[in-house]
Amino acid sequence: MKNRNFNDWLSYFRNSIADYGYYIDFEKVHNNVNNIKVELNILNSLIGSKNIEKDFKNLIAEYPKVIKCIPLLLAVRANEIYAIDEDGAFKYNFKEPNLSVEQYKVFMRKTGLFDLIQNHIISNLVDYATGVETGLDSNGRKNRGGHLMENLVENFIKKAGFIKDKNYFKEMYIHQITEKWEIDLSAISNQGKSEKRFDFVVKTDNMIYGIETNFYTGGGSKLNETARSYKQIAGECKDIANFTFVWFTDGKGWTSARHNLEETFDVMEHIYSINDLENGIIKEVFK
């Protein structure tokens, strides 16, 4: 692989690796709404109310638990909400109410929730909450995206015939590798003073492979730091017998940090892309 051309290699980098479940986790959305569905349906009785503040007070007196679903109506994932204006500062607890019903009426009025419910701006709070949950879940794409490259690489590891917890392992720390196979990795742990975790570790008869994976859709300083860090690790691993550092990376975000990536590419033998994975690099390298 030493004769690869960096520009050719980079040209195959992908814009995205989003799968179908990346955009919205609808199972999670529906589960979250179902947890408060009864309370939302009770609150539905306030829709179109002619005297919503009185009706709200009576509703809370009879069904105090309905108050717990109010934060979601404001797209807030918290049991406590802080609010301040010229009348003072208040911390509203919606799990264990800590203020008077009158003060919660103030909250509903000033946040616009009374107006939303009373004036038929919405017709069903369950449907409304489902929409809010869907919007909130879209914020989870960053976390889901962080695992997409790991999942993709793991699929290729499995296709190559490796078996989880037998000859490939997820998220192993240096001390775990050291203890399991009695190998000295102090060169990459600052003599045991720092702890490094690899996304995957593959064990063959002749070698232990420490693997890192990432995918970058956008640029930023993080990419330069990653390239420099992995370049250093690759250098530190060269003198460790029976251990090889492998980096799988991809994404058009590298275009803005291509020079740092190229520096690492020039000195690191085992740096590969999704295109390399598709062309069978795992079976070629992991022997």
3D structure, described in words:
There is one protein chain. The protein is built from 14 helices and seven strands. The chain has helices at about 5-10, 25-35, 35-45, 50-60, 70-75, 100-110, 115-120, 125-140, 140-160, 175-180, 220-235, 260-265, 275-280, 280-285; strands at about 80-85, 90-95, 170-175, 195-205, 210-215, 245-250, 270. It folds into two domains: about 25-140, no CATH class; about 140-285, Trna Endonuclease, Chain: A, domain 1. The radius of gyration is 27 Å and the shape is elongated. The strands form two sheets. A five-stranded mixed sheet has the order 3-4-5-6-7. Strands 1-2 form a two-stranded antiparallel ribbon. With about 290 residues, the protein is α/β, with parallel strands linked by helices.
What does the secondary structure layout of this molecule look like, with pairings?
Layout: H1 6-11, H2 26-34, H3 37-43, H4 52-62, H5 70-73, E1 80-85, E2 88-93, H6 101-111, H7 113-118, H8 125-138, H9 141-159, E3 168-173, H10 174-181, E4 197-203, E5 208-215, H11 221-237, E6 243-250, H12 258-267, E7 271-272, H13 274-278, H14 281-285
Parallel strand pairs: 5-6, 6-7
Antiparallel strand pairs: 1-2, 3-4, 4-5
Helix pairs in contact: 2-8, 4-6, 11-12
